[in-house]
Amino acid sequence: MKSLNKDFWRSIARSFGRYLAIFLISGLGVGFLAGLQSVSPDMKDTADDYYNIYRLTDVRVQSTLGLTDEDVEALGALDFVSDIQPAKTLDVLVESDSGESAVHFMEIPKEGSLNGFRLVEGRLPENENECLADPGKLGSINPKVGDVITVAAGNDEDTLDALTVREFTVVGTALTPEYVSFERGSTTIGNGSIAYYVYVPEGVIDTEYYTLIDLTVSGAKELSSFSEEYESLIESAVDEVEVLAPVREQARYDEIIGDAQQELDDAQKELDDARAEAEAELADAQAQIDDARAELEDGEQELADGERELEDGWADYYQAEDEFEEQIASARQQLEDSAAELENGRAELTEQQAAFDENAAALEEQLAPLEEAKSQAAALAEQIESLTAAGQGGSAMALQAQLSALEEQIAAGEAPLAPAQEQLEAGRAQLEAAWQELEAGEAQLQAGQEELERQEREGRAQLNDARAQLEEAEQELEDGRAELEDGRKELEDAQAEYDEKSAEAQQEIDDAQKELDDAQKEIDDIEMAEWYVLDRDSLAGYASFANDTDRINNIAKVFPVFFFLVAALVCLTTMTRMVEEERTQIGTLKALGYSNVAVAAKYLLYAASATVLGSAGGLAVGFTVLPTVVWAAYGIMYNMPELILSFRWGSAALATAAALAVNLAATLSTCYREMKAMPAELMRPKAPKAGKRILLERVTPLWKRLNFIHKVTARNIFRYKKRFFMTVVGIAGCTALLLTGFGLKNSISGIVPLQFEELFLYDAMVVLPDGASEQTVTGVTGIVADSATEYLPCHYESVDLTGPEGMVTDATLTVPKEAGRMSDFVTLRDRLSKAAVPLTDDGLLLSEKTAGILGVEEGDTLTISTGDRRVEATVSGVVENYVMHYLYLSPAVYESLYGSAPEYNSIYALLNDTSDAAEDALSERVLDEGALAVSFTSGIQEEFKDTMDSLDYVVIVLILAASLLCFVVLYNLTNINITERRREIATIKVLGFRDMEVTSYVYRENLVLTLLGIVFGLALGVGLHAFVMAAAEVDMVMFPREMSWVCYVIAAAMTLVFSMLVNLIMYRRLQKVDMVESLKSVE
Amino acid sequence: MKEAAELIRFENVGKVYGTGAVRTEAVHDVSFSIDKGSITIVVGPSGAGKTTLLNMLGGMDTVTNGKIWVDGEDISHFSRKQLTEYRRSSVGFVFQFYNLIQNLTALENVELAAQICKNPQDAAAVLENVGLKERMKNFPSQLSGGEQQRVAIARALAKNPKLLLCDEPTGALDYKTGKSILKLLQDTCRKDGMTVIIITHNSALTAMADRVIRIQSGTVQSVTDNPEPTPVERISW
Questions:
Q1: Considering only CB atoms, which chain A residues are within 8 Å of B54?
Q2: What are the DSSP calls for B51-97, one per residue?
């Protein structure tokens, strides 16, 4: 057997091209089958591993009223919970260099806790002013390491209150399995969608409650997240949590209401106290003012009295003055009269005096000697006295005598004079008396005058005093009045102030009361807490990831079939040719006594080794390249760690076995005939396969026009049927793959313009919160009306639909306020006829795919469920739609079904301006006004487009596969043709055929087969495309089945280009055919 | 012997195969000439260098040294392209194993050659001349060996070549058929004035030639002119 072994190896070396063809096509088939099959599991494994490493939550509980430690305790007590972790999150408007955006704040989880993150860049925050940011994807506007983000002032108060830090420096970026895709979810702030997330240190979000509680379910980690076991485990966990929910919801509600009510009551009490106090204070103030007012009035009274008194005083005074003047005057008159009398008396007296004095003077003269004598006498008396006194009595005596003498003389002298004297004396006395009297009178007068003067003076002084007194009083009064005036003014001021203060106080109190009333209303409005018990499907991107991988799985079931078919054909033609070539050798070996098995073993081994080696290569490539390429395609949409590639023995064994079975069957069938033949027969050269007339020759006019190359080609094509089938099937497969690839891309990206341009005519949809106030509705509607050419309020609601056979799907129920205008916003038409399907007053329109899933047609009945309400309705029409499920009802139908008019909680609008800036502005305005969300058709369209772009990679894989397929079959065909016709080729070369003529002699066949393959391929491609579309289609989307003619052209053109390339490669082989071959004998 | 112009002249032609250490000198210093309208037989044992001469003369191979003149042109320095044109218009080949295209009928095989040259003969007429009028529409597999070789000769003649180069034309045929083929070749030469060169190992055939060139070990052993060539009918081997 040694020589047989040698022969085996030499055969391979000699016919390496053929071996390569089997190798390649087996590799292609096996690689594709096993590779495609491993894509989905690899992706799921990678995701699952990622989830496990970072301990992604299994179940997440959220509540409309926040969650508490008691909730954590209650949940933790559930027996299936293996780990539980509450967390605080907050959606915040943030300002950064890229503008204001809504950002999801999360607390940095503790090391080893649930929902860990992967630090991509930078470091962990070291203080509360630092944060980690979402790394985003190329082209995103996320903050970079080193950027500073600031909490916008425009956040509502609760949000601002809940944040202890307002400015953060990004010190690193982190990825989390919570966000595997680029969806970041929606929010009620900003433009309604989360731009990115940040991780802030613990404590920065300072709320009393948790926003979510995450928990892992024991035993879940060991299961793949995408397995049914996992799903059912989690489902039962969710169910159990839901059982707990009502109790906790009630507790939380009570707590919140209780706390709030308590707080409110306290506040009310405080307010009441404050009000009482204020009122008391005010009353005091009023009393004071009133007192002051009374005092003031008293003062005024007093003042008036004083004035009156003063007036009286004045009156008295004037009267007194008059009287006084009168009295004085009369007294003066009397005095003057008296004075005149006295004057007269004086004058008389003076005359009397004068008369007297003459008498007295006459007497005097008579008395003068006497007087002298008297003086002498007096002098003597004095001398006597002095002498007596000196003791000289004697002399004194002497003198006394003289004196006595003298005195006698005197007495004598006097005696005659005595009567005159007496008379005179009497007169004098009289006169003196008169003088005295006069003087007395005068003195009296004088006294009277003095008296009068005194009296006058006194009186006048008195009067003056009185006047002064009066004037003083007047001044006093004046002052009093001024004082009073001041007092009054003061009082008025005080009153004004009081009034003001009082009003203010009242306002304040009223405001406070209103606030409290509002708060009360708010408390009254607080709805029952509602728990949302979510599984991983609720995480952004989680569900779509699973869906996407499943989609790949669907496609994995289709493509390899081709490769296997082509592999069988390649193997068949190759082995047939080989066995034919070696028939002499087979005959010789048999003649030498080798058994059939030993001889056939060579060929089987040849095919099997090529197949196994090809499979190994295919597996190596398929298990790495296909998952990697698909992963790369999805990498645009998903943030995941490096793909974990696995060698899947099951798939590998299955695919290899399949390839072996196919190829060995083909080989056996070729060997079988030769083995049956006798050695002698085999050793004779086999008669060349007879030339045969073909059907085409009957068309003589045409046939005649063909040159010999065409004729040879035509006959060859029909002579070698296996090659024909191999090539046509292979090329058809190539074309079909290309058509499918481009068709997929074309159809799927066709959804975007169809759905968002042709069908969804509206530019924006504004969603209002449930039970929005009249004011909000009016406000939002006003804003929408401002920027829209047309708008239509609608009722918008998510419902579940159930078909007659029990199929269930979710859908969006839309009830336009005016049924007739719905078609201005959404094109309602039949997909095939494009005929409008209007929404009439008794209409219920269903989107096409939805109808398909439910198995309903026009006139059929379906069940619409909302919560636990179920109504039955009849479909009046089916409308074209590609994305999601829609159900359109007229208001009349809605009312007849639900018994109440719909609440118009959304607005469809055709906008004036659909630029990004205008849409952003509108979005901001309506959200400020209280709208819940705004979606713009342009935005959804963008998002969708991005997703579609990742299909390019799938198209690339298909192109690669198609080109490989094309290469293998054409290479194999050309290879066989050249080796088989080596002699013919050498001959025509010898005959002087030019290179081009020789080439076309061989290649024309390739070209014709290629063209034929393309034609079949296009037909096949249409079917394959439809199949793949159906297989890849998710429930949510209906792919348009139509394909642009461009796809056909591209698929055909690319196939041609591939075949040209193969021909180009084979051209050298052709050139190398030696003319000397023509001289050799036939083997 | 008639007066005849020289059609082919080999001047000291040598051919070396391989390069460097492994050099095989297939022929060396071969010189002879062939007249127009004559039958020349190149004869020698296997490995003597007949096929090399044929290849060089037929424009299938290049010359290492020396010159080959064909109708006044030196083909020894022709490029690949020029050689193709030379084969196309000047040479008619007749192969030992006929080398017909299996998928073409007899007529089509002749047309195959006729279609590529400037001044072809009518394919049907040529076939008629070689006695295959009735079998024109048959595929090679439906023809006997002799008939196939006739088709091959017709194919070569249809091109109106300057020379007919026959490589062991009877090698695969039985004696009788071989004889008839040789007769056809001789007739073609005599009647149509075609220059016929037959390469064979069978020296019995030399009698029918005007000139016999004997090759031995890569060199010309002798060039003998046959003043009275024997008609094929009278030759036997």
A1: 1079
A2: HHHHHHHTTSS--SEEEEEETTEEGGG--HHHHHHHHHHHEEEE-TT
Cβ distance A712 to B104 under 8 Å?
A: yes
Residue A394 within a domain: yes
Q: Among A140-154, A685-699, A880-894, which range has the highest average pLDDT?
A: A880-894
Cross-chain CB nearest to A691 (options B55, B93, B139): B139
Structurally, chain A folds into a number of domains equal to 5
A821-844 residue pLDDT tens: 888 899 999 988 888 888 888 888
* Contact check, Cβ <8 Å, A691/B104: yes
Whether residue B107 is contained in a domain is answered as yes
Total count of domains within chain B = 1
Cβ–Cβ contact A685 with B under 8 A = no
Task: With CB atoms and an 8 Å threshold, state whether B58 touches A990.
Answer: yes
The DSSP bridge pattern shows strands B39-43 and B195-200 to be: parallel
Parallel, antiparallel, or unpaired: how do β-strands B195-200 and B163-167 relate?
A: parallel
Taking CA atoms, what residue in A is nearest to B141? A690
Q: Is residue A251 part of a domain?
A: no
Contact A577, A675 (CB under 8 A): no
pLDDT over 90 at A613, yes or no: yes
Beta strands A861-866 and A531-534, pairing class: unpaired
Whether residues A726 and A847 fall in one domain: no
Instruction: Please indicate whether, in this complex, the C-beta atoms of A715 and B116 are within 8 angstroms of each other.
Output: no
What letter represents residue A820's amino acid? G
**Residue A914 belongs to domain spanning:** 769-931
A708 touches chain B (CB under 8 A): yes
Determine what percent of chain A is predicted with pLDDT higher than 90: 6
Spatial neighbors of A568 by CB under 8 A, at least 6 apart, are A662, A663, A665, A666
Q: What are phi and psi of A153, to 5 degrees?
A: -70, -20
CATH number of the domain bearing residue B122: 3.40.50.300
Give the chain A residue whose CA is nearest to the CA of B86.
A992
Question: Which of B:105-124 have CB within 8 Å of A?
Answer: 105, 108, 111-113, 115-117
In this complex, the residue of B91, B97, B101 whose CB is nearest that of residue A1081 is: B97
In a domain, B24, yes or no: no
Q: Is residue A691 part of a domain?
A: no
Helix (H) or strand (E) holding A149: strand A148-151
